[in-house]
Amino acid sequence: MTTERDFFAGRRVVVTGGVGTVGRELVRRLQTLPVAEIRILDNNEDALFFVGNEYAADSRVQLFHCDVRDADKVERMFAGMHLGFHTAALKHVPLCERSPASAVNTNIVGVQNVIRAATVNHLSHLLFTSSDKAVNPTNVMGTSKLMGERLVTASNAVQQDGRSCVFVSTRFGNVAGSRGSVIPLFCQQIEAGQPITLTDPAMTRFVMTIADSIEFLIQALMLAKGGEVFITKMPAIRMVDLAETLIELVAPVFGRDPAAVETRIVGPRPGEKMWEELSTDEETRRSYDVGELLVILPAFRDIYDRIDYSYGGLDLIPNPQTYHSAAITPMNRDELRAFLLRPGVLPESIRAKLGSS
């Protein structure tokens, strides 16, 4: 089986959304591999400037201001690339609900622009990062991500000049510690002496570290044959356990008595599910276990009959159960505490204080 270093050796890689939480960590990971070039595309000017300073010593890393809604610019930026990771997106549910046209333009039209750029420039692989919210979507953001998945899968039916790009999607759960995630929010509330705002004690979620998410992307890209949706197996947590464990761990850092930190139940937000879904009932008929990952094969297999869905000798074990967080035994408090202390989960300032105490 091809090693990771051999797969990436000498390749030029483009990353959209390269200064976001996932994109930035992905670039750091790619820097450890023998790639020829890492091209970062993002529309966040300030972040591009500061991230550029971080990568100044690595001549392989090139940063460009580029919005995925600009089809011509995206096509030019993909010229000469071999591999692509598409992580740019509008991800916040309330913002997409208030600005649905922006969500459509970025998460659907933007995906199509990236697909076209990868096709025209003959990339060998393009990976799209989707979301659990694409499963049985209840909001604009999730629906736009689902359409992105469908476009990515359908693009494998199109070939140009006898050369085809492998288009593949990955579904994420919650990346712990990422911007906008609940762990930094709970930490801020504890620091400010405010009540922790808990949606519902029975709510469950999948969680993964940022490092785990990057390993997932690398694995999926290397395994992909075209048209699949990959899911990584993740631990589940109860939100009430997360809140209470964070209080015990973080409150003393700010000189607060954990027993004095209030937890306020505020109820689920509109469209928010009690558990996190990463596959549907329909998808179980074409879902398989391939070691550390689950793979959902395309529904219209007759269209993709030229693709050999074998994965380097890995057994394709049918996976007849929908993958959702209420069906997984959640981490206990000790496991959750150990998870929170992993790099990248807690804000670094808090983690440093815990490490020195």
Describe this structure in words.
The chain is an alpha/beta fold. It has a domain of 243 residues: NAD(P)-binding Rossmann-like Domain (Rossmann fold). Helices cover 36% and strands 17% of the residues. It has 12 helices and 15 strands. The strands form 3 sheets. It has a 10-stranded mixed β-sheet, sandwiched between helices. The chain is globular. The N and C termini lie far apart (45 Å). The mean pLDDT is 92.
Write a brief structural summary.
The protein has twelve helices and 15 strands.
Strand content: 15-25%
* Overall number of strands: 15
N-to-C span? 45 Å
Alpha-beta content class: alpha/beta
Shape category: globular
Per CATH, the class of the domain at 4-173 and 207-234 and 278-322 reads Alpha Beta
Radius of gyration: 21 Å
**On the 0-100 scale, what is the average pLDDT?**
92
CATH architecture of the domain at 4-173 and 207-234 and 278-322: 3-Layer(aba) Sandwich
Total helical segments: 12
- Helices and strands, in N-to-C order? HEHEHEHEHHEHEEHEEHEEHEEEEHH
Low-confidence stretches: none
The largest β sheet comes out as: 10 strands, mixed
Which percent bin holds the helix content? 25-40%
> Looking across the biggest beta sheet, what order are the strands in?
3-2-1-4-5-6-10-14-13-15
Q: What would CATH call the homologous superfamily of the domain at 4-173 and 207-234 and 278-322?
A: NAD(P)-binding Rossmann-like Domain
Q: Within the CATH hierarchy, at the fold level, what is the topology of the domain at 4-173 and 207-234 and 278-322?
A: Rossmann fold
Secondary structure elements and pairings:
Layout: H1 4-8, E1 12-16, H2 21-31, E2 37-42, H3 45-54, E3 61-65, H4 71-77, E4 83-86, H5 93-98, H6 100-120, E5 125-129, H7 140-154, E6 166-171, E7 174-175, H8 182-191, E8 196-198, E9 204-208, H9 210-223, E10 229-232, E11 236-238, H10 239-250, E12 263-265, E13 287-290, E14 293-296, E15 317-318, H11 333-340, H12 348-356
Parallel strand pairs: 1-2, 1-4, 2-3, 4-5, 5-6, 6-10, 7-9, 8-12
Antiparallel strand pairs: 9-11, 10-14, 13-14, 13-15
Helix pairs in contact: 2-9, 4-6, 6-7, 8-10, 10-11
